[in-house]
C-alpha cells in the first residue's frame, strides 16, 4: 500500500515533485521522504516513470544512477550495483565535459523514456523530481 498521493506499481510507490533541482538536491528531497531517486529494474517501471513525467509536462527527471566512484561505470546510487536493465539514449552515456563538470548523473528524458548522463549540477529544464520507495 502506498501513502496518499503516491502512485503504485506492483513493485514501488512513486511521487512527482514539481520543482527543478540539481541531482544532489533531488536525492536529498527524496531521502527526506524516506524514498530515493528512481532505480529502474525493468521496462515496465521505466515506462511508468516516463508516463508520470509526461503527465506532469516535465522535460526530464533524475534517476538514482551515477558514476562517482568509477568514471563511465554507472551504478544505482543506493546499492552501488551495476544495472541489469538500462535504456540509454543513442550515443549515451557520452560523459560530456562542460566547463569543469563531467556528466556523472543520469536523467530520464520524458518524451522517450531514454536515459542520458548529465551534469549533476544542471537543474535548468529539469522541472521535476520523481521519488521511489518500496
Ligand atoms: Ca561521468
Ligand atoms: Ca550525456
Automatic annotation (TrEMBL):
PROSITE patterns per record: C_TYPE_LECTIN_2 (PS50041)
Lineage: Eukaryota, Metazoa, Spiralia, Lophotrochozoa, Mollusca
Domain C-type lectin: 9-121
Pfam families given in the database record: Lectin_C
Cited Gene3D superfamilies: Mannose-Binding Protein A, subunit A
Protein name: C-type lectin domain-containing protein
Amino acid at each position: 500500500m502506498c501513502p496518499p498521493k503516491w502512485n503504485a506499481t506492483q513493485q514501488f510507490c512513486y511521487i512527482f515533485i514539481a520543482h527543478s533541482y540539481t541531482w544532489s538536491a533531488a536525492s536529498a528531497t527524496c531521502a527526506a521522504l524516506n524514498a530515493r531517486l528512481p532505480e529502474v529494474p525493468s521496462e515496465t517501471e521505466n515506462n511508468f516513470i516516463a508516463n508520470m513525467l509526461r503527465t506532469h509536462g516535465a522535460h526530464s527527471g533524475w534517476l538514482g544512477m551515477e558514476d562517482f566512484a568509477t568514471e563511465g561505470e554507472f551504478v544505482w546510487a543506493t546499492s552501488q550495483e551495476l544495472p541489469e536493465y538500462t535504456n540509454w539514449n543513442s550515443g549515451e552515456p557520452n560523459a560530456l565535459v562542460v566547463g569543469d563538470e563531467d556528466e556523472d548523473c543520469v536523467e530520464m528524458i520524458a518524451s522517450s523514456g531514454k536515459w542520458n548522463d548529465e551534469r549533476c549540477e544542471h537543474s535548468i529544464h529539469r522541472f521535476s523530481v520523481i521519488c521511489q520507495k518500496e
